[in-house]
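Appendix C: a fully annotated inverse folding record. The material below is reproduced so that readers can follow the format used throughout the book. The structure is listed first as tokens, followed by the designed sequence.
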């Protein structure tokens, strides 16, 4: 007859299994996969949330500004509305009298007039190449920003310009 296993005998093994399970699942870094916001902030001490509109969930901070994202991430603005029939010249809009967009609109990096009020901001994981991002995600460089949207939030009073913009991991559009 085998001796009965008691909780006291199992406790160390259960604690180790639980610790390994929690540590190996969802993380708490910007860009990690998640199912609920607690996956992004296990201690519930930051404002990280799980964006379930992205494939596999995406740990992020909503409403960031130029310098508020943690290391390894960048604040990116997206516009949830656009006027596809109103193109604009991003490099020259509002400079020297060029105004293709209305008074309540801005010219997005993509070259479309968008309502200023449609801007949403997220901390997004920075990347050098596609290998830095999860499956189903792309390392969105300037070319992909123009095609698929999203642009870094500039410092207050400054404009973003083409050149050395930080790339970020974002869900790749379905083909």
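Designed amino acids, in order:
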């Amino acid at each position: 007859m085998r001796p009965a296993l008691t909780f006291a005998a199992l406790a160390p093994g259960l604690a180790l299994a639980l610790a390994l399970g929690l540590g190996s699942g969802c993380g708490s870094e910007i860009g990690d996969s998640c199912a609920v916001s607690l996956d992004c902030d296990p201690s519930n001490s930051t404002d990280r949330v799980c964006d379930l509109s992205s494939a596999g969930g995406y740990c992020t901070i909503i409403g960031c500004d130029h310098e508020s994202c943690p290391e390894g991430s960048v604040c990116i603005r997206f516009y949830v509305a656009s006027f596809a029939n109103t193109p604009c010249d991003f490099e020259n809009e509002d400079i020297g009298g060029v105004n293709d967009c209305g008074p309540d609109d801005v010219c997005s990096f993509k070259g479309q007039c968008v309502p200023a009020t449609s801007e949403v901001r997220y901390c997004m994981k920075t990347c050098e190449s596609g290998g830095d991002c999860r499956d189903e995600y792309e390392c969105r460089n300037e070319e992909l920003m123009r095609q698929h949207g999203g642009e870094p939030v500039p410092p207050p009073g400054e404009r973003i310009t083409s050149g050395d913009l930080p790339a970020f991991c974002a869900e790749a559009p379905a083909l």
